[in-house]
Amino acid sequence: MASGDFPGRPEFFPGAKPSQNGIAILQSLAMVARGAFTTGVPRLENLLPMGTLHHATVHHTGFPERFLTDDFAATATHLLEIQTLHCDPAGRNWAEIGYHYAVDRMGRIWQLRDLRFQGAHVKNHNAHNAGIVVLGNFDLQTPTTQQTTALTALLNFIRDAFHPITVATHRELADTPTSCPGTYLQMFIDQHFRASNKEFA
Predict the structure, then answer these.
(1) Is 112 helix (H, G, I), strand (E, B) or coil?
(2) Which pTM value belongs to this model?
(3) CA 118 to CA 130: how far, in whole Å?
(4) What one-character DSSP code corresponds to residue 87?
(5) Nearest to 13 by CA among 155, 119, 115
(6) What residue ranges do the domains of the chain occupy?
(7) The 108-111 sheet, strands edge to edge
(8) How far apart are CA 13 and CA 28, in angstroms?
(9) Do strands 129-134 and 101-103 pair parallel, antiparallel, or not at all (unpaired)?
(10) Neighbours of 123 (CB within 10 A)
(11) What is the rounded distance in angstroms from the CA atom of residue 49 to the CA atom of residue 18?
């Protein structure tokens, strides 16, 4: 199956070559296009090409207070605030929001940075690596069932469509210590991830 020959908004996953099982997984996901939270234009001249995808890394937003918003519009506002933090010259001054996808509390998957370009989510480890952020501080709160279900499906789709893919968390790759993706989300990954190329349970 050629890239782009599958249903379900293939622009979310450029270069993907899913199996029929992967297509079924994709069709189960509630995908939200980048334009739903921002009209900002990335500084393309400062972005590096992703190349072949080999990895996916799980993060949390990790702000000091728990994130408890389920509302679509309020979630969009929150993502715009993150983009501003990442892109504003007074902030991190990145070319675009650092992650490729976000998973909100209702299990919606938001498209953030175009997957054709490297992210800014694990310093020195962004090449060939999709960044997925789960909204919340999971040192202070547990992910919702909708979040873990959607995260599992998203990771399973990526593993199917870009095989072979390794999945890690930020703390497992970081050159300096971090608690990301938080105790409770790390616990979920540890409990449900199966080694090698097996899927999440």
Answers:
(1) coil
(2) 0.93
(3) 8
(4) H
(5) 115
(6) 30-192
(7) 30-32, 108-111, 101-103, 129-134, 55-60, 166-169
(8) 15
(9) parallel
(10) 10
(11) 21
The percent helix, strand, coil of the chain (3-state, each to 5) is 30, 15, 55
CATH topology classification for 30-192:
Lysozyme-like (3.40.80)
What is the rounded distance in angstroms from the CA atom of residue 158 to the CA atom of residue 162?
6
Instruction: Single out the residue of 99, 136, 122 nearest to residue 168, CA to CA.
Output: 122
Position 97: which residue type? Answer: I
Q: Which residues pair with 134 in a beta bridge?
A: 60, 103
Read off the amino acid at residue 109. Answer: I
Strand-pairing partners, residue 108, are 30
Q: How far apart are CA 189 and CA 8, in angstroms?
A: 26
- pLDDT tens-place values along the chain, 201 residues long: 344 456 556 789 999 999 999 999 999 999 999 999 999 999 999 999 999 999 999 999 999 999 999 999 999 999 999 999 999 998 899 999 999 999 999 999 999 999 999 999 999 999 999 999 999 999 999 999 999 999 999 999 999 999 999 999 999 999 999 999 999 999 999 998 754 444 444
Q: Copy the structure tokens of residue 38.
A: 């921002």
Strands in 22-152 per DSSP E = 30-32, 55-60, 101-103, 108-111, 129-134
